[in-house]
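Researcher: We plan to redesign the surface later, but first we want a full-length starting point. Tokens attached.
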């Protein structure tokens, strides 16, 4: 593992070094921190330190990166991951997570659930929170009737907004699966399980960014190591 890394990169590389073995199928997360893990896998494969490792990407962006750095890819129709390495937007008590601000929460959750439920989260210490809800909670929604879905989500919290392509765009952000994303703001989320159940009762909600009971471990990089 390289010296002088950012805490996020150090955490991602350590997770790969310690948990990935030759012959494994690995779920590959999406986002800046997860990309460090993908790059590390590529480095070890090129160096011959790992062999016959294949990845299942959680987004088109991750698939492109994996192909660039030399990580062979398979689909869920061909294999199941022994473990998944991914980042998180918030890590709360009991390894309850918020994910999806990078726009790939549905596919991330599908891949994380598809194997042995061994999700290893990698992050910097800024992602540790005392209670979930310090930032936005992404929800992937069906484009048809999104306005009514957004209104229902807004009634559960303080605010809900449709994510756009960028701050200057009038076009909604569209996920790889062709869905929209609603970003919800709460003062805090004291009972994530109850909130997720309530959200999933709303027609039009496809999946929430609450990842509960999925993560096995969190590797947190700090300035001190």
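Model: Full-length starting sequence:
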């Amino acid at each position: 593992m390289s010296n002088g890394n950012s805490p996020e990169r150090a955490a991602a590389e350590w997770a790969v070094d310690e948990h990935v073995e030759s012959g494994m199928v690995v779920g590959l997360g999406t986002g800046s921190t997860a990309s460090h893990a993908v790059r590390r896998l590529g480095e070890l494969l090129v160096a011959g330190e790992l062999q016959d490792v294949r990845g299942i990407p959680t987004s088109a962006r991750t698939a492109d990166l994996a192909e660039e750095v030399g990580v062979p890819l398979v689909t869920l129709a061909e294999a199941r991951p022994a473990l998944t390495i991914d980042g998180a937007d918030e890590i709360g008590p009991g390894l309850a997570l918020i994910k999806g601000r990078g726009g790939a929460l549905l596919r991330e959750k599908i891949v994380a659930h598809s194997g042995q439920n061994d999700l290893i989260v990698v992050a910097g210490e800024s992602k540790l929170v005392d209670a979930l809800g310090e930032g936005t909670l992404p929800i992937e929604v069906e484009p048809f009737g999104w306005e009514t879905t957004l209104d229902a989500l807004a009634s559960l919290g303080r605010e809900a907004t449709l994510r756009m392509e960028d701050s200057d765009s009038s076009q909604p952000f569209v996920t790889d699966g062709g869905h929209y994303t609603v970003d919800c703001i709460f003062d805090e989320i004291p009972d994530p399980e109850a909130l997720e159940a309530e959200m999933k009762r709303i027609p039009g909600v496809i999946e929430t960014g609450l990842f509960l009971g999925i993560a096995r471990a969190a590797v947190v990089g700090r300035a001190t190591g």
